[in-house]
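Page 42, continued from yesterday. The earlier attempt failed because a stray header line got pasted into the input along with the sequence. Redoing it now with the clean sequence only.
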Amino acid sequence: MFYLSQKLVGYSLSILASSGFGLALAAQSSPSVPPSSAIAIAVQPAADIPFDICGEAQNWVRPTKADQLKKLQSLPRYANDQVNQPIQSLSQRFWQQDVFSFTQYGLSLRMEPIYLSGLWTVQDTLWQCYNATSIPQLNAGKTAEVWVLSHRVTRIQWTGEQYVMTVQPARTGVQFIQFPRRESRSTLPLKVVTQQGAKLTVVAGN
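This time it went through. Structure tokens are written below.
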């Protein structure tokens, strides 16, 4: 009799399963999972950063290598040290660069980028960027400074992690840019790209 009851119970369960009732129970016991469309990810849009062109020389071009060598040899700072490290490495590096960034002001911090990049021909234009207001702002970490050679700056944005500066290539010229900072890192988190998407190398001047 017991064996017969077991068969009847098993037979009844199989009927319930085939009728879909068991599936309904299983579905009711499963935890509900929200659809993927219900999960919202907040993306902060990039914010435009106002910038000031505190100095500009639209017709600037790098001096010839002969003029560059003659200038360096005339300066006690470089006259006897051009073939030694680190001046030789800095000279080769700065001569090739189009973007320099700064998070501080100091006369000694500007010397190598000015002379080794060939910007000594327009340094009077650069000095216009420094006054009783701008220097404290730079040294307090409230203002950033960027030199852009052979390009024109069209836009600066803050993405939440870095500044993205968009530039347009130019045959001649240099722009000295200052803008308010959104961070306090020792090296400026700056990415520079052309309007066509090409990325430019940024050299930290300080």
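Notes: The first strand starts at residue 47 and ends at 48.
Reminder to self: strip header lines before submitting.
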